[in-house]
């Protein structure tokens, strides 16, 4: 009988179909196979692997996830994208410009999943009206306590600031997740952060001004210092939140929390009920009103999934 060696790997760096690639503790990469019984690891998963008699390496255990990032599939079910990140960098840019809803949706998801969010405004070299508007919008998010970093993968401006957020000077190592619309420059930022990497990037479509879905699977990369890692993900055109109870959705908006339970009806969903405190808040504060509108649009979307 062959003696089997189990290796506890650093992380799964990419995962597709029934196989993937893992990084060993010495950072070397190794192709691995999955077995149906164990399931398919996510990018970022810690796994155990064992060498088979045919010399292939098989994933034999997926360790418990500390966090995961997800989106809705087309039925409104939660679909996990990557695991074990400490923070998510939501990348936005003047081209393609985000809707307010998109930013709010990402922030909601991360609040619910317990992932710290940093808003990264890329392409600040594209000076113009759109950039000014975005900066204006972002002041509201800064007031809510979200950190905003401005940078340009093209000019290199702000890349040092970004780099500083990606690694701890002390243990434990940080894992960051890049998310955002297709074409905002996630992979370009990665190329700026890790010289010699040469991840594929692509121009925006001339016809639509949107990105071309250049990155197709989540992929983890090692940063040069401190064992920290970063996961690049495929960009989206729209980001959908999975179906959740209305109370959970309301809690995902940070500034709503202090008002929860204070409406006339204890089961108030804050969507036009009498004596809802959200109405008073919205009348007094335009930024609250905008986020409340987004919440109400999300409620309607959730009901559509449920019906
Ligand atoms: N002007 C300018 N263009 C940039 C900047 N960063 C990226 N781009 C350009 O934006 C386009 C899209 O960049 P990508 O890095 O492929 O975008 P992505 O977010 O990875 O896109 P997906 O993989 O489809 O999600 C490319 O043409 C880049 O050269 C920037 O800071 N300034
Ligand atoms: Mg990309
Ligand atoms: Zn209410």
Q: Tell me, briefly, the overall form.
A: globular
Helix count, DSSP H or I runs of 4 or more residues: 7
Question: CATH-wise, what's the superfamily of the largest domain?
Answer: P-loop containing nucleotide triphosphate hydrolases
Q: Strand fraction band?
A: 15-25%
Q: State the CATH class of the largest domain.
A: Alpha Beta
Helix content: 25-40%
Distinct small-molecule ligands in the complex: guanosine-5'-triphosphate, magnesium ion, zinc ion
Q: Give me the Rg, rounded.
A: 21 Å
- The third-level CATH topology of the largest domain is Rossmann fold
Report the mean per-residue pLDDT as an integer: 92
First-last Cα distance = 56 Å
Number of strands: 14
Q: Output the structural class.
A: alpha/beta
* Major sheet strand order: 11-10-9-12-14-13
**What is the total domain count?**
3
CATH architecture of the largest domain: 3-Layer(aba) Sandwich
Kindly describe this structure.
A hairpin with a 5-residue loop joins strand 3 (19-23) and strand 4. Helix 6 (277-284) crosses helix 7. The model has no long low-confidence stretch (mean pLDDT 92). The chain has three domains: 6-62, Beta Barrel (OB fold (Dihydrolipoamide Acetyltransferase, E2P)), CATH 2.40.50.140; 68-232, P-loop containing nucleotide triphosphate hydrolases (Rossmann fold, 3-Layer(aba) Sandwich); 246-306, Ribonucleotide Reductase Protein R1, domain 1 (Orthogonal Bundle). The protein has helices spanning 100-113, 129-143, 159-166, 186-193, 246-251, 277-284, 286-306, and strands spanning 6-8, 11-16, 19-23, 29-33, 47-51, 57-62, 68-72, 78-83, 87-92, 116-121, 147-150, 175-180, 219-222, 229-232. It is built from seven helices and 14 strands. By secondary structure, it is an alpha/beta fold. The N and C termini lie far apart (56 Å). The strands form four sheets. The chain has a six-stranded mixed sheet with strand order 11-10-9-12-14-13, with helices on both faces. Zinc ion (ZN) binds at residues 263, 268, 270, 273, 276-278.
């Amino acid at each position: 009988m062959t003696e089997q060696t189990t290796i506890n790997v650093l992380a799964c760096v990419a995962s597709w179909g029934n196989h993937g690639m893992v990084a060993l503790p010495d950072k070397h990469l190794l192709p691995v196979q999955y077995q149906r019984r164990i399931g398919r690891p996510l990018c970022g998963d810690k796994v155990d692997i064992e060498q088979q008699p045919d010399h292939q390496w098989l994933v034999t255990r997926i360790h418990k996830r500390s966090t995961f990032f997800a989106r809705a599939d087309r039925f409104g079910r939660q679909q996990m994208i990557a695991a074990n990140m400490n923070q998510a960098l939501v990348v936005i840019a003047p081209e393609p410009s985000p809707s307010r809803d998109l930013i709010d949706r990402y922030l909601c998801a991360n609040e619910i999943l317990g992932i710290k969010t940093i808003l990264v405004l890329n392409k600040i070299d594209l000076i113009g009206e759109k950039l000014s508007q975005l900066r204006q919008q972002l002041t509201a998010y800064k007031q809510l306590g979200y950190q905003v970093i401005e940078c340009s993968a093209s000019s290199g401006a702000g890349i040092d600031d970004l780099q500083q957020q990606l690694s701890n000077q002390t243990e434990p190592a940080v894992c960051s997740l890049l998310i955002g619309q297709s074409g905002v420059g996630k992979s370009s930022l990665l190329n700026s952060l890790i010289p010699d990497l040469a991840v594929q990037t692509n121009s925006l479509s001339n016809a639509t001004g949107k990105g071309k879905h250049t990155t197709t699977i989540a992929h983890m990369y090692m940063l040069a210092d401190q064992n920290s890692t970063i996961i690049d993900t495929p960009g989206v055109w729209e980001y959908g939140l999975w179906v959740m109870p209305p109370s959970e959705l309301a809690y995902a908006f940070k500034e709503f929390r202090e008002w929860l339970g204070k409406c006339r009806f204890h089961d108030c969903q804050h969507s036009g009920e009498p004596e809802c405190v959200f109405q008073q808040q919205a009348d007094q504060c335009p930024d609250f009103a905008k986020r409340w509108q987004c919440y109400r649009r999300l409620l309607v979307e959730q009901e559509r999934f449920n019906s």
